[in-house]
Design a protein that fits this description.
CATH topology of the largest domain: pyruvate-formate lyase- activating enzyme
Strand content: 15-25%
Radius of gyration: 21 Å
CATH class of the largest domain: Alpha Beta
CATH architecture of the largest domain: Alpha-Beta Horseshoe
Helix content: 25-40%
Order of helices and strands: EHEEHEEHEEHEHEHEHEHHEHEHE
CATH superfamily of the largest domain: tm_1862 like domain
Bound molecules: iron/sulfur cluster
Shape: globular
Largest sheet: 7 strands, parallel
Structural class: alpha/beta
Strand order of the largest sheet: 6-9-10-11-12-13-14
Number of helices: 11
Distance between the termini: 37 Å
């Protein structure tokens, strides 16, 4: 039995990646659990505490290195009795078996907090849809104060060649429509109108439950007709598959935002990314959505400087980004052990910098988009 944390312990909470929705919701659930069960905690990174909870991330090699340094530095603090590492870094973490102070809880194991902390209200019963900017800084059309965030699933049905998230979370695990609608009704009680459906890929929702995202959206709209929905991360291949049954909900105007990460406008690069969908069909669907629901804001993510990328590939990607209302370009970096990390030649050094300048100039010229490095 894990030695429990007591209410006398001073808890410091560290959030490594406030830009990730699924991670923000999971951390918020933990924070609310601590609050409703009478534990004191701080986000002050300078505060001297004997328990440190680190909300981890594995999205990039840079993030993973930051994680390793943070764990070592925290363990060097003499007064620290427990270091709880939660989230996506856990499956990648070296075995710290020799340090009894370290407790690892994976992204799909939040219920383990019930073992670790004496409690009156279990973590599964704690509402977590209201995120504050300490926990989450949206980089897309979301508002941490106005929106209510609902986690609908974790993991996905794809296997993109560059991705660490899949390695951390594995196959799709969906929550039931009943649980999701209960969360939305809680948000309505709290006066919210905009609800963000969150997952690593909402498009994979329900594959493990013999249902899908289109059915879920219909059930939500039937149960809560006055709400507006934002859907983050719908894998393009899943959108192409679901569009015929999702179109009715789109025409209803209840869906006001969707993020469809295209990642590249080059067929050849998509093949290397192991992302299998028809670019032309996807473009037609985006055009159709803007026709039948003009106020639905469609956002996309693109990866630039992917290994072997040519200037023609980059141009295809920048042109495809303009199919959408807005976009973010992420500068590629290798995640060790992924298939993509074994692809050559890399786009690096002067060539990489030159291409980022091309991207910045395009963004400036079209007054749209943003460049980011994770
Ligand atoms: S869809 Fe691809 S990029 Fe997204 S979580 Fe799944 S494997 Fe990773």
């Amino acid at each position: 039995m894990m030695q429990q944390v007591s209410r006398q312990n001073k808890i410091r909470i560290v959030n490594l990646n406030p830009g990730c929705e699924p991670s923000g919701i999971l951390l918020n659930k933990i924070v609310m659990f601590l609050r409703v069960n009478g534990y004191e905690y701080t986000f002050d990174t300078e505060a001297s505490c004997d328990v440190v909870l680190i909300n981890s991330c594995c999205v990039s090699n840079a993030m993973m290195s930051k994680m390793k340094i943070m764990i070592s530095e925290t363990l060097e603090e003499g007064q620290v009795k427990k270091v709880i590492i939660f989230g996506c870094f856990v499956p990648f973490a070296e075995d710290r078996g020799n340090d009894a102070r370290v407790i690892m809880i994976g992204p799909k194991e939040a219920e383990e907090f019930d073992q670790l902390f004496a409690h009156r209200i279990p973590i599964g019963h704690v509402p977590a849809g209201r995120l504050n900017s300490r926990l989450f800084r949206p980089h897309q059309l979301m508002d941490a104060d106005e929106d209510y965030f609902v986690l609908i699933c974790q993991g996905c049905t794809q296997n993109c060649s560059y991705c660490n998230i899949k390695r951390a979370k594995g196959r799709i695990t969906s929550r039931s429509a009943e649980q999701i609608i209960k969360d939305i009704q809680q948000g309505l009680k709290e006066g919210k109108k905009n609800f963000v459906l969150v997952g690593d890929d909402c498009g994979s929702y329900g594959v493990d439950l013999k249902t899908d995202l289109a059915c879920l959206v219909r059930e939500i709209i039937d149960a809560c007709p006055d709400i507006r929905l934002k859907i983050n991360y719908v894998y393009p291949g899943r959108l192409i598959h679901l569009f015929p049954s999702l179109a009715g909900s789109i025409v209803s105007g209840k869906i006001i935002y969707m993020c469809v990460p295209l990642q590249s406008g080059s067929k050849r690069i998509l093949k290397l990314m192991n992302r299998d969908y028809d670019l032309g069909r996807l473009r037609d669907i985006v055009t159709e959505i803007k026709k039948i629901a003009p106020s639905l804001w469609i956002y996309t993510h693109m990866i630039v400087n992917f290994p072997t990328e040519t200037m023609e590939d980059l141009e295809d990607t920048l042109q495809a980004a303009e199919w959408f209302d807005d976009f973010v370009l992420f500068n590629y970096s290798d995640n060790p052990m992924t298939a993509a990390s074994r692809f050559y030649p890399k786009v690096e050094g002067q060539e990489q910098a030159q291409r980022l300048r091309v991207c910045m100039n395009r963004i400036k010229n079209i007054h749209c988009g943003r460049l980011d490095q994770i």
